Amino acid sequence: MKRQRAALPGIMFLGALVIGLFVGYTVPASSHAGSTYYTKTWGSDINLAFGYQSGSLGSTTARATYNRADSVWNNVTGVTVDFYNSGSVNPMVYDTGSVCDVPASRVWIVSNDISGGGLARAATCGSNPTRGIVVIDSSSRTWEYGSDFPTSTEWDLQGVVTHEYGHVTGFSGHFPSADCPNTALQTMCPTLPSAGVYQWRTLGSHDIHTMQNAY
Amino acid sequence: MASFIVVRLSAVFLAAMASGCGNVAESPVSGASEGDGLSLSCVGDVGDVNFTYEGGAGENTKEEAAANVIADGAIPDGSVTIDGPDRGAVVRDGAAIALLNFEELDGGWVVGYAQVCQ
Question: Distance, in angstroms, between A8 CA and closest chain B CA?
């Protein structure tokens, strides 16, 4: 009897562990509350225009890529996103300004050498952001700017821009590692695993339901 | 004693951050001894700038992290000063034009958010 009692906590622990493993593999759609992962920043329609630099990031090829990136967000059912090409080259005069000086409802796509090894970053102004910049790494990294799938040595601009657009529309962070066993499968996971990976071009189930939960 | 001073300086800086850039705040900066008169006047409140980072580690130093987001155009240009373990400022003409909050990212440093004051 004493032995049975002593074993009871261990059995309960193992049971909880098994249940936890099963639960852990199935993340319910309702788990990504908008209040946690996505700050609802727009009343109803998201309306952002992007501008770009001259050079590679402003090429016809790259601009077509931005259009493909915005279309995946525009197509989320139940959320009205209008993310479109402003048709203008952004004025790169920032000596005295900041991202808060970007015109309202605009996102500038710019390049910078991100020496720490990062792919990209996004900056938004204010707790209710309607203006931002997307920074693409301009170090020696090789990008696939167009619609072709990247080779094993090329990084996918379309997928990375799709991810950054998520941030400027309202994703304030990334999904936790528990929800990203394969970080390529959800666009808003924290890290694109390697060059040659293009899955961020397509939203994953977590990306979609999180945005829908917010709106 | 040293710990006490660090705590006190951090408290002053945190109070300045909490009060918002719209208020004039006095905040000792890195390299300055308490009472040497060096202070930051943060006038105006343009807005908070939030950053997200994809891939790679942060920069080796906080100064490099600040310089990088300045080069982005995300925050105004000026000299960078560090105050405490995770705070800093961009200073121009003796006045803070942005207050910085640093975060660690994979062993490096990034600017997590900034408060633009001018």
Answer: 41
